[in-house]
Write a structure and sequence with these properties.
alpha/beta
Length: about 475
């Protein structure tokens, strides 16, 4: 069964920018819909609704569409006109080729005072004697019936003999309903697999048709020639062809049940053809590595996975959520330097690795509890870490042959800090520019330097007194 979905309505609302709340016109024809629903809640502003060529058996869920002006339900399985009283603005109703046999249900349209056009062509009620007169007299607001305009004189004549027309219509309606009940029972028996016992009548019916149709002998000769030219069929194909001929050549009354049966038969044939095409059509091979050597990520099995990098152990770990109860013999693992490929029941999982690994040193393990497959792949080259060399001051107690293992362990555990050798000073010490006297000599005094001895006089500097009035020698 096909239902009216929001996605279906939204696709048909492209002209309204896919907005359905303000939609005024929607076309849902040829969708095999079997029930009208949701439109009265989703599209309250609808004015035009196309539902022709579907499988709708009943008019329902349209009473809230107050602005609906045109409703097209042609080529459906509707048997009664009902539930249209709430459509206050309805002006045109199309029920062409349906199964409306209860003509008295037309009177429910009296509440639709704006109704101007009504189409009932192809319905069983149109074969009733006095059909048009009854409809014209029952719906005084109508202007057109089955595409023919209703004149004023026709309306007057219909109103004059209305009582007699109603009596005849009610009798024909009862006969139709009785016949319709028998058709429903027969359809139920057929659906239950019971034989109707009318095979002889059907064979006689086929022979009568062949005898009455002109040129039937020529048709038989043409059929024989076609059969001779055809290729020989297998037993199964012959059975299918025979069943197909029996289905379409068996006479039946035109009812909603027969229409549904034909539709379902065609749907089954269409699905069978699609399956045959899928079987015959070769499966396109999955591209794992492109022509230029680029590796693709593939997950045909649709398994959950996680790819992590273990920095401490310098490895890449791939955790693949394989089915818990699946046998390990159905799993095939292939690790390459740049990618890893796992085949699970013929379905390929391929993942490009973030770094180059060592396939020979890789391991594959499977959990006995969860069933996950864990691939541990060591990297081909570790990361280059920059370390700073720190100059340590010499220790007096340090052994010349090396420290003990305990000292090395303790040194490795302690954080390394930058230490400075205080014996080497690169800056200038300004505190020792002026020499200081010893503390034993008394208070600090600036020392004076003795002038150099005169080389000209050859006398010593002892007892020399500098006279400030005498200019220095040049």
């Amino acid at each position: 069964m096909v239902y009216i979905t929001e996605d279906m309505v939204r696709r048909r609302a492209e002209h309204n920018e896919c907005e359905i709340f303000s939609l005024e016109e929607v076309s849902l024809h040829q969708q095999d819909i079997e029930r009208i629903e949701h439109l009265d809640r989703w599209c309250r502003d609808l004015k035009i609704l196309y539902l022709q060529n579907n499988l709708v058996p009943r008019i329902e869920n349209v009473g809230r569409l107050k602005k609906l002006e045109y409703l097209n339900l042609a080529l459906n399985n509707i048997e009664v006109i009902e539930n249209l009283e709430g459509c206050e603005s309805l002006q045109k109703l199309d029920l062409t080729v349906n199964f409306v046999g209860r003509l008295s249900s037309v009177e429910s349209l009296k509440h639709n005072i704006h109704l101007r056009e009504l189409f009932l062509v192809g319905n069983p009620c149109t074969e009733f004697e006095g059909y048009r007169q009854y409809v014209v007299a029952s719906l005084p607001q109508l202007k057109w019936l089955d595409g023919t305009e209703i004149s004023r004189s026709e309306r007057i004549r219909a109103a004059q003999g209305l009582e007699e027309v109603k009596r005849r219509v009610s009798e024909q309606e009862r006969e139709y309903l009785k016949r319709r009940a028998e058709e429903k029972e027969e359809a139920q028996r057929k659906a239950a697999g019971e034989e109707t016992g009318n095979n002889e009548k059907k064979e006689g019916f086929d022979s009568d048709i062949s005898s009455r149709v002109p040129g039937s002998e020529e048709n038989k000769e043409n059929q024989e020639m076609e059969e001779n030219t055809k290729l020989p069929l297998t037993s199964s194909e012959l059975d299918e062809e025979q069943q197909e001929k029996e289905f379409w050549n068996t006479p039946c009354s035109f009812t909603p049940e027969s229409r549904l049966e034909a539709h379902r038969h065609l749907e089954e044939k269409r699905r069978a053809k699609e399956k045959e095409k899928e079987k015959k059509k070769p499966k396109a091979s999955r591209t794992l590595i492109t022509a230029d050597g680029r590796v693709m990520n593939v997950n045909e099995a649709k398994l959950d996975f996680s790819l992590t990098e273990d920095e401490e152990n310098n490895t890449i770990v791939l955790d693949l959520a394989v089915y818990r109860h699946m046998d390990t013999s159905l799993i095939d693992v292939d690790v390459q330097p740049t990618y890893a490929r796992v085949t699970v029941k013929g379905k390929i999982f391929q993942m490009v690795l973030p770094a180059e690994v060592k396939p020979d040193s890789s391991t594959a393990q499977r959990s006995q509890t969860t069933g996950h497959l864990v691939l541990t792949m060591p990297r081909a080259a570790g990361e280059i870490k920059v370390t700073k060399t720190v100059q340590r001051p010499p220790r007096a107690c340090q052994n010349t042959h090396g420290s003990s293992s305990d000292d090395n362990t303790r040194r490795n555990n302690l954080p390394e800090r930058l230490e400075v050798d205080h014996s080497k000073h690169m800056a200038l010490d300004l505190a020792n520019i002026v020499p200081r006297q010893s503390t034993n000599g008394g208070p600090l005094e600036a020392s004076r330097t003795a002038p150099p001895a005169s080389s000209g006089h050859g006398s010593s500097s002892e007892g020399f007194v500098d006279d400030p009035d005498v200019p220095p020698l040049i």
